[in-house]
Design the sequence.
């Protein structure tokens, strides 16, 4: 393993990359995909198996933003030791962040289209989304573009102290909680900038799935944890575990109150209803649950990192952007023989086959990029 990398970050990132692939192969092969937007009636899941498959992938997006922030803290410390200035480091993050936006529009988007090009018309469930009718939509903000823009903003904030940064995640979540309207506002034509920042949905010319502000808060929280790890070393891991457990306890307490903390009423009489959480935007319950699990897993990977040192998890985690791009095309092609969708067991067979292919591709790419200079564009992937 290269120096200046944290094995727990790479292992957890590799693990959630694998989980993420379940969600996407479910779309390409099974032609099933859930969508938990604020304010709309949530369609029932296809089955218990499909719900569980969706539930375990909820950890992915929060994990991406959390680990991105932690990695930015480690990257900054490493590059300062190598003589980079803070300005050069911020410039690096700005360039890499805008590269992610470019990748979403021009490399990622064709992968989604390729995966659905042979799908039987009408096979997909039509999931309702908030928004106003009318006008073209040509600006689309999903996970990769908002990861990139969060990196840009966070990179410019790295000069600030921990005390200042610590207030921002709380403010980001509180602002989202305060601004999101009730279900009566789902057809309101909110200003596109307000959509982009806080309220997912459609107002021409934008369609927003991941608004910037709540997810920026998760990335900044990751920076704070990364700095804690750098400053406290081994002492930081029990603290992180304690934060994770506290988040989970808070989730169960708040979720037991019903709709409080989840933006809208969702029944809690069954375990499926209990864990049906609003993701777009991430509700307080969603963030407490998913970040809590991620932090507990982070601690677990730290304690068992030697067991996973030569596993695919590490390879996937150290080539995450490459994995993300390539996995769309691999699973899109695996989905071509199933235009009307297939059973969940077929989806999981396709998932495993795709992971095998991706392992060898990612391993080759890791060797390639590690041979490049520190400021090479290839290292961005």
Sequence:
């Amino acid at each position: 393993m290269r120096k200046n990398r944290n094995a727990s970050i790479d292992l957890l990132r590799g693990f959630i990359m694998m989980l993420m692939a379940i969600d996407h192969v479910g779309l390409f092969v099974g032609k099933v995909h859930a969508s938990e937007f604020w304010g709309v009636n949530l369609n029932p899941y296809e089955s218990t198996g499909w719900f569980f498959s969706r539930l375990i992938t909820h950890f992915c997006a929060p994990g991406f933003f959390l680990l991105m922030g932690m990695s930015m803290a480690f990257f900054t410390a490493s590059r300062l030791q190598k003589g980079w200035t803070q300005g050069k480091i911020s410039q690096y993050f700005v360039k890499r962040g805008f590269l992610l936006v470019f990748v979403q529009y021009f490399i990622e988007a064709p992968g989604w289209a390729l995966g659905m090009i042979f799908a039987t018309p009408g096979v997909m469930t039509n999931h309702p989304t908030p928004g106003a009718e009318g006008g073209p939509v040509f600006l689309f903000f999903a996970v990769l573009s908002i990861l990139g823009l969060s990196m840009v903003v966070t990179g410019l904030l790295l000069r600030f102290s921990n005390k200042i940064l610590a207030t921002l995640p709380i403010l980001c979540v509180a602002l989202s909680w305060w601004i999101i309207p009730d279900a009566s506002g789902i057809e309101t034509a909110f200003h596109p900038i307000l959509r982009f920042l806080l309220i997912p949905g459609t107002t021409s010319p934008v369609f927003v799935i991941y608004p910037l502000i709540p997810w920026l808060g998760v990335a900044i929280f990751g920076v704070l944890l990364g700095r804690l790890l750098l400053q406290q070393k081994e002492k930081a891991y029990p603290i992180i575990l304690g934060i994770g457990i506290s988040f989970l306890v808070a989730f169960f307490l708040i979720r037991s109150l019903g709709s409080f903390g989840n933006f809208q009423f969702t029944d809690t009489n069954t375990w499926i209803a209990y864990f049906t959480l609003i993701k777009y935007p991430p509700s307080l319950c969603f963030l407490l649950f998913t970040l809590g699990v991620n932090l507990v897993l982070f601690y677990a990977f730290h304690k068992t990192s030697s067991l996973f040192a030569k596993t695919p998890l590490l390879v996937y985690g150290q080539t995450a952007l490459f994995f993300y791009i390539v996995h769309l095309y691999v699973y899109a092609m695996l989905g071509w023989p199933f235009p009307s969708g297939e059973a969940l067991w077929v989806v999981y067979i396709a998932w495993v086959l795709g992971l095998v292919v991706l392992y060898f591709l990612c391993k080759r790419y890791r060797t390639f990029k590690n041979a490049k200079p520190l400021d090479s564009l290839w290292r961005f992937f």
